[in-house]
Amino acid sequence: MENNSDVTIDMQGGYSQAAGPGQVEGPLRYLVQHVPLTLPPSATVREALANMNQRQIDILVVVDEASSLPLGIVTLNDLVYAITLDGGGLDEPVAGMMTAAPLSLPADAPAHRATVMMAKRGVRHLLLLEPDGSLFNVISRNDLFGLRGGGADTLAEKVTEAMDVASMADAAGAIRKRGAELFTGGMSAEGICHWMSALNDLVVMRIIELIEDEFDLPAVPWCWMVMGSEGRLEQTFSTDQDNGLIFLADDETEATRLREAFLPFARVVNRALDACGFTLCRGGIMASNPQWCLSLMEWQTQFSQWMRVPDPKSLLNSTIFFDFRPLYGRYELVDELRSWLLPQPPEHPRFLRALAEEALTCPPPLGWTGGFVYDGDIENPHSIDLKRFGARPFVDAARIWSLMYGVWATNTGDRLRAVAESLKLSSEQTAGEVESFYLIQRFRFRQQLMAEDPADVNRVDPDTLNELHRLMLKEAFKQAKKLQLRLKLQQGL
User: Fold this and answer.
1) Which DSSP letter does residue 388 get?
2) Count of domains observed in the chain
3) CA end-to-end span of the chain, whole Å?
4) Strand 384-385 vs strand 99-100: parallel, antiparallel, or unpaired?
5) Residue-level pLDDT at 370
6) Which pLDDT value is given to residue 109?
7) Is residue 90 part of a domain?
8) Is residue 37 part of a domain?
9) If I label 272, which of 166, 200, 411, 433 is the partner at 20 to 30 A Cα–Cα?
């Protein structure tokens, strides 16, 4: 039986359009190839225009001559406006036309962070700084992957202008609707994931921003974290909440007091997110749960406990919580937690082995003869769960290897690219794995847009696919099998 739905899968759309390691999530320093144009504050507008013309660029950084610290940025539009409309002269100092104290990020911050910051603040350039505050480079929207085209600017503006939960719900609905249109139009699965994740991040940030004003929150550093698919930048058209809150406390007594102060705020945020289409987590993995509203020290203790005693509950939590990233608030708290965590997993080989054993309980659904194997679901006996048996083998293996080799990224594609050298994989092998993962994601998206029953959003009956699509799905599952075999041999299982 052939499926005649308008929701189709094309060969090109099934593959990732990202162009290399770190293309989506970072670090930012690897995304810019040009050398920045810098001038001292005393340089004239004439000198600035001549240098820009020679280099064929439209932005420069004004840098202090003594300290080499960046003071501001000047774009070609700034200079043209100053000369033609403000009556500025060519021999005036360029510093008089710069945007002082421009937005900046550490050069090693994830690229997604820059994407969201640019969209939220409505800017097109960010300075990238070294740890000592000196300039590394300038990054523009064109260097980033997450929000290219697709009406993202208009939707981002709709989000930032929303003043209540009802208007935020309208904006979130418009994002999902436009995402579905882009998908059916052939946008890659990886592109859809990061396009939607960036805009959904803006939605969540704006909701927290609005609700924060209603509460007298403690005057301590805190940050809203996201985990699971949201943490991996792999949100689909059907997703629930996985979030937590981290704050700074001096001791256990203060942590208890601060938690009680943050919980009412977190409950309102979780309910507002639910109203915007991010359904409440049935497992209670939300910041409104006292278990996941913790101080930095408590989060460190929790992660240590999971690694020391890898029981079934710890392993289940590991598949969600080890994919955390910051979303709103003091990012440095989450960055500190990540920096503390990175060297820990290799010191717990029993934990990594247990994660691998758990990952291997979800084998790709192919039999010895190469045919599809069905998982025996009572309601849909002739179907395959693409989330559990399709995407999960890639997600789990990528997570385990990222923990083994100290990879900062949380996104599955970026993790696979980042560990390729440690695993001695060729660029072709890695590309095959990443493309296969996103091909399976594309089948999931198709099903989510077609399914009428929420229980069927990740299930596909291969008989509803045409011959080419069945072949593509089988090839993707073969890549997942190779991935699991590598993991099995590596862990001696």
Assistant:
1) I
2) 2
3) 40
4) unpaired
5) 82
6) 85
7) yes
8) yes
9) 411
